Amino acid sequence: MGRIKVLPGSVADQIAAGEVIERPASVVKELVENALDAGATDIVVELEDGGRTLVRVSDDGSGMDRDDASLSLDRHATSKITSTAELVGVASYGFRGEALPAIASVSLFEMETATSDGSKDSEGTRVVVKGGQVEAVETTARSRGTTISVKRLFYNTPARRKFLRSQRAETRACVQSVTVLALARLDVNFKLLSDERVLIDAPRVSGIADRVASLFSRKVAEQLVPVDYATGPISVRGFVQRPAEARASGRKAYLFVNGRPFKDPFLIKAAENGYRATIPAGVRPTLFLSLGVSGDRVDVNVHPAKLEVRFRDRFLVEKAVEEGVRQALRPSHAAAVVVDRDGEAARAEWSVNSSTAGPGAFEQGYPRRSADLPGLDLFGETTSRLPGARFLQVFSTYIVFESPEGVTIVDQHAAHERVLYERTMHELEQGTSGSQRLLLPLTIDLEQTELDAVEHHKELLSAVGFEVEEFGGRSVVVHAVPNPHPRFDARRCFEELVADLGHGRLAGLNRLERFAATYACKAAVKAGQELEQEEMHTLLNRLFVCELPPHDVHGRPTMVQLPKDELERRFGRS
C-alpha cells in the first residue's frame, strides 16, 4: 500500500506541457489559435531570440473578465465545449483547456486582457504566473482583447530547454506556425516580428491567391491552378501547382479539414498520385488543399497538439484528393502561361463569407472561362470539331493558333507524346492494338541488357504492335511494327525503346505506365518535322480530348498560352 500516489498539480502541468508545448512555435500556435477562437481580426506575434527569450501574442478578440482570466489557467478549463457530445465536429481550434496552464507551468507568464469596448483606458485584468504559480492578479488599463507574454520558456526544465535548436531554426518554426493559420483565416490580419524585424505582414484578403502572394510570393501564386471537386460527403478545394512548375525541392504542402490545419503524409501522397504521368519521379508539387467533411466523419481529438486527425472513411478521402487533383490538371487553363503580369490565369479565389467567418468558412469561386476547345474521339473516328481553324507551324516544332483566351502555342512532340501515352494505356488495359507487318523484316543487333529487356517486356512490346523474335546471338528480327504517324521511324523507335527499358529509365511509374510513357516518347512526332494543316488539325483535336491535355509525361507542358489581355497591354490597348 502507499506505492500509488496522485501527482502534484505542478508536475501534472509540466507533463502536459511536454505533450502540448515542444518549442516556441508550439506556444505561438496555441496562443494564435486562442486569439482566433476569441474572434480576433488583428493578431500580432512578437519574438525575441527565436521565442526562447520572449513570445508575445496580442489580439483584439473578445477578451476575458477577471474571473475567466484566472480560471483559464486551470487545467481543462475551457469555453469551447461543455460535454463529450461536443467533441464530435468541434469547430474551434482549441478545446482541451490545456494550453495556457501548460505554457504557464514552464515559463514566466503574463496575461493582460479586457472585455470592454470603450476607450484605451478601459479596465482590464493582469495575471502574472511564474512556473505555474500565480503571483499576482491585478487591475490594469487596456483596450478590448488579450496580450500574453511568455518569457524564458522552459527556464525551470533545463533538460527540455537544451533541446531547443538555434535561433534561426526556432524562428523559422514560429513563422511556419503563423503561416499555416494565416492560410486558414483570410479574414484576419497577421503580423509577426522577430527581434523587431517584420517577417510576416499579411493583411486580410478576399482570396487565397493574395494570401499566398503575401506569405510567399506572387510568383508562387501565379503557378497555381484551382481544385474544386466533390464526391458524396467529401469536398476537396484549393490550389495545386502546374506540373511544369513543380520541382524536386522547395515545395509547400498545406492541408486543412473543415478549416483546421493538419498533417497527413498519406493525403500528400494521394495528391501526388493525382499528378501521375505528368511529372517525373522525385518531383514534389506545391499543394494548398482544403477538405470538407461532415463533423461525424472526422475526429480532431487524436493528438495533444491537434496536428493530426482521423477519418472514418480514409480510403474515400484519399481517392477524393487524388481525383480532385487529377481533375484540376485537365482543363486548358492548367497549361503554362507565357506572360502573366498579375497572375490572373492562376487567381481563382477562396473568398471569405463574412457572415460565417471562421474555421471552414471559405466559399470558393472561380473566374468564368470560355469552353475548352472540343476535339475528336481519341480512339475512334468522328468529324472535325474545329471547322475553318488555321494553324501556323513555327520552327518546324510549334503549332500556333487562336484560342478563346488568347494565343496558344503547342509543342508538337509533347502534344503527340500525351496523345500516344493515353492511347497506349487504353490499348494495354483493353488488350487491343494495331500494327502493320513489314514486307522486309528488320534485323537489329542489341546489347545483352537490351536482349534481356526484350525478353522481359515481350508481351508489352507485342501489345503496342512490335512482333519480335530472336535471330541468334545478340540479334532479333522485327516482323511487325506500330504505325502511329506517317513519319514513324520504326527501327529508331524500337532501338531507343529497348535501350530505355534495358537501363531501367523512367522509374517511379508502374510497369504499364512506364512502358507506355517510354513508347510514347520514342514514337511521337519529333521537333523539326514539318506537318501539313490536316496533320496539325488532327493532332490538336486528339490532344484536346485527352484526360490531361496540358501536360506531357515528363513534367513539361504540351502548350503555353499568351492571354489576350497581355497582348492588348503590350500593344497599348488596355
Give a description of the structure.
By secondary structure, the chain is an alpha+beta fold. Helices cover 31% and strands 25% of the residues. It has 17 helices and 25 strands. The strands form six sheets. The protein has an eight-stranded mixed sheet with strand order 5-4-3-6-2-1-7-8. Strands 9-10-13-11-12 form a five-stranded mixed sheet, with helices on both faces. Strands 16-25-21-20-19 form a five-stranded mixed sheet. Strand 4 (123-130) and strand 5 (133-141) form a beta hairpin. Helix 1 (9-20) packs across helix 4, helix 11 (412-430) crosses helix 15 (511-523) and helix 11 packs across helix 16 (533-543). The longest helix has 19 residues, at 412-430. The termini are far apart.
Counting helices, strands and paired strands, the structural category is alpha+beta
Q: Largest sheet, order of strands side by side?
A: 5-4-3-6-2-1-7-8
CATH class category name of the largest domain: Alpha Beta
* Quaternary status: single chain
Which percent band covers the strand fraction? Answer: 25-35%
Total beta-strand segments? 25
* Cα-to-Cα separation, first versus last residue: 87 Å
Characterize the biggest β-sheet. Answer: 8 strands, mixed
Mean pLDDT: 81
CATH superfamily heading of the largest domain: Histidine kinase-like ATPase, C-terminal domain
Helix content: 25-40%
Residue windows where pLDDT falls under 50 for at least 5 positions: 81-90, 340-384
Radius of gyration: 30 Å
The global form is elongated
**Helical stretch count?**
17
By CATH, the topology of the largest domain is: Heat Shock Protein 90
CATH architecture of the largest domain: 2-Layer Sandwich
Q: How many structural domains in the coordinates?
A: 3
